[in-house]
From TrEMBL:
CDD domains: Aldo_ket_red_shaker-like (cd19074). Residues 316-336 are annotated as: Disordered. Pfam families: Aldo_ket_red (PF00248). The keyword Oxidoreductase applies. Residues 16-314 form the NADP-dependent oxidoreductase domain. Keywords: NADP, Oxidoreductase. Belongs to the shaker potassium channel beta subunit family. InterPro entries: AKR, K_chnl_volt-dep_bsu_KCNAB-rel, NAD(P)_OxRdtase_dom_sf, NADP_OxRdtase_dom. SUPFAM superfamilies: NAD(P)-linked oxidoreductase (SSF51430). Coiled coil: none annotated. This is Aldo/keto reductase. The keyword Ribonucleoprotein does not apply. It comes from Agromyces tardus.
Length: 336
């Protein structure tokens, strides 16, 4: 397993991260989740990503249970704060000082650890002053409850505003966690260049576009039983935008390229995101251990430039590139 530095820090993580969004505590039972985590460990994955909002805190608990007994210093554990958990009261959401300081304690208890390696702002909070948020993160770091700070789905302007505050507070803001795949490239125009300038790496989620880039969804055919597209607990909504006949036909056109590299389509998709020098790690999820074992084979793969150009040609205008899509991911209103 290849390891990479995260941002402008001395902190190294595995090039493949195991994440448990939409799986632990939701799609699969705890014993299956534990088997996937152990498969990840066996494959050399040391980095694990979760969030308190996943399955309304259950995902953190399942991950903590699965990692129990493993040497803590050999693991990198990430979690996030923003979304509503518990009874979803008016202070149970966002990046206020109150919510951050209460949420970190809950996350640590569920994960069964004294600290997380990376604590991330899951979205940008338009209702809390940024300096309040960054001061709260600084206090979390100084209390020894997190080692580094990151964000998720922040725009270039938001990163640029946060970086000097982090520097002033003497904490290390080293990562952003955006959606990124061969089909979803909205970070390339603005977020990636800004991140390079600021010493921030990308921890990318959905490198296989919610499973579409595995090639298992065929144009004009029913979706496979038990797949994310048929999951009524949230998976179907996340994948819907990719399930057009045009996109699915183009994905099938990637098969010859994958075969030329002796890769599956899923491995090709993960290897593709890892070619971006600003990407430190790609998050994979799994409902079965064999999916973990397949995807880790993408670590260390180098796709020649000529084949990268062919991938671009095959996918064509099916690729989403509009940088404004990042801003759309952070809520502009509060229900509570």
């Amino acid at each position: 397993m290849e390891s990479r530095y995260l941002g402008a820090s001395g902190f190294k993580i595995s090039a493949i991260t195991y994440g448990n969004w939409l799986t632990h505590g939701s799609q699969i039972e705890a014993d299956a989740a534990t088997a996937c985590v152990h498969a990840a460990l066996d494959a050399g994955i040391t980095t694990f990503d979760t969030a308190d909002v996943y399955a309304n805190t259950r995902a953190e608990s399942v991950l903590g249970d699965a990692l129990r007994g493993h040497r803590r210093q050999s693991l990198e554990i990430f979690t996030k704060v923003f979304g509503p958990t518990g009874p979803k009261g008016h202070n149970d959401v966002g990046l206020s000082r109150k919510h951050i300081l209460e949420s970190i304690d809950g996350s640590l208890a569920r994960l069964g650890t004294d600290y997380v390696d990376l604590y991330q702002a899951h979205r940008y909070d338009y209702f809390t002053p940024l300096d309040e948020t960054m001061q709260a993160f600084a206090d979390v770091v100084r209390a020894g409850k997190a080692l580094y700070i990151g964000v998720s789905e922040w725009t270039a302007d938001e990163l640029r505003a946060a970086a000097p505050l982090a520097k002033e507070l003497r904490i290390q803001l080293i990562s952003n966690q955006p959606q990124y795949s061969a089909l979803w490239r909205v970070i390339e125009a603005e977020v990636v260049p800004t991140s390079k300038e600021l010493g921030i790496s990308q921890i990318v989620w959905s490198p296989i576009a919610q499973g579409v880039l595995t090639g298992k969804y065929l144009p004009g055919k029913p979706h496979p039983e038990g797949s994310r597209a048929t999951d009524d607990k949230g998976g179907a909504g996340a994948i819907r935008r990719f399930l057009t006949d045009d996109v699915l036909t183009r994905v099938q056109g990637l098969q010859p390229i994958a075969q030329e590299l002796s890769l599956s389509l899923a491995q090709l998709a993960v290897a593709w995101v890892l070619q971006n020098e600003n990407v430190a790690t790609a998050i994979i999820g799994a409902s079965r251990p064999e999916q973990v074992r397949e995807n880790v084979a993408a670590s260390g793969v180098v796709i020649p430039e000529e084949l990268m150009r062919r991938i671009d040609d095959v996918l064509g205008d099916a690729v989403e590139r509009d940088p404004r899509r990042t801003d759309e991911s952070s809520p502009k209103f509060r229900e509570a």
